[in-house]
Fold this protein.
Amino acid sequence: MNQSPVPDLQHRTVLLDEAVDALALEGARAAGTYVDGTFGRGGHSRLILSKLAPQGRLIAFDKDPQAIATAEQIGDPRFAIVHDSFATMREALAARGIAQVDGILLDLGISSPQVDDASRGFSFRNDGPLDMRMDTTRGISAAEWLATVPELQLEKVIRDYGEERFAFQIAKAIAARRSIEPISSTRQLAAIVANAVKTREKGKDPATRTFQAIRIFINKELEDLEAGLSAAYELLAPGARMSIISFHSLEDRMVKQFLASKAKVEQPDRRLPIRAVDLPQPLMKLISKTKPSDFEVEANARARSAVLRVAERLETTR
């Protein structure tokens, strides 16, 4: 079996050991089938492969062509990469004859190489074309969207996806500027936002929330997460685990509420003559919630907002 290549040193995988350990890859479980829904630069996938038995399998997903290129360097017959969103995992696995899996890992963060590459347009810190697409082979860029989006819709996106209290002012400023010239670069957009935002959160660039909002919208991140959580649950075998890392409150709220909805059930009135065996049973068990250690945050500031939630599918007879 070929050795996996050395991970990309530009990217530090957040909660690497914790997220993989949560899948409980010991004993017979090491021979199972697993999904890494967000390959990124392969930190989690490589660690999973190092723990899998020879007959184990790992199917990874990613939208980013650069991530796909990195994944294709892994010469391991147990590994396969799919160039698509993890929202499509049900269909993609069915095409490979896989109906159930023994664990699914989702790292919902944007990777450091994506942020640090100015040509991708994710960051306001380095000037570059305003693209923001995870998959540069599909869809429209942020610049193209900003050129035509109605002002009211733009305000809603910035408010809802960025949780930005100055969404009205920012949308108005963007609409005014685009009537004069195209908004095509990251620095250009960041400057417009900075001029529209009158107060700033300590230690945070005023453009942070707007860039987050536009990125989430352009890449359909929350829609993919909703579909992906549903698909992941349906694919989990009894006893299989879901290990999910979130990086902002919107996605963490969705994950928390989804897992809670599977772990809690409405119980009937105690006065009704119902046997204990016939009472509604939870579908999942909440295992843990973990945040990065102070040491990890000190070494990698991008880990500071990460939250790892782990849940296990229960055996159900009804």
Summary: The longest helix spans residues 221-235. The beta strands are 33-36, 57-62, 79-83, 101-107, 236-246, 284-290, 307-313. The CA atoms of residues 241 and 312 lie 4 Å apart. The chain has a mean pLDDT of 91.
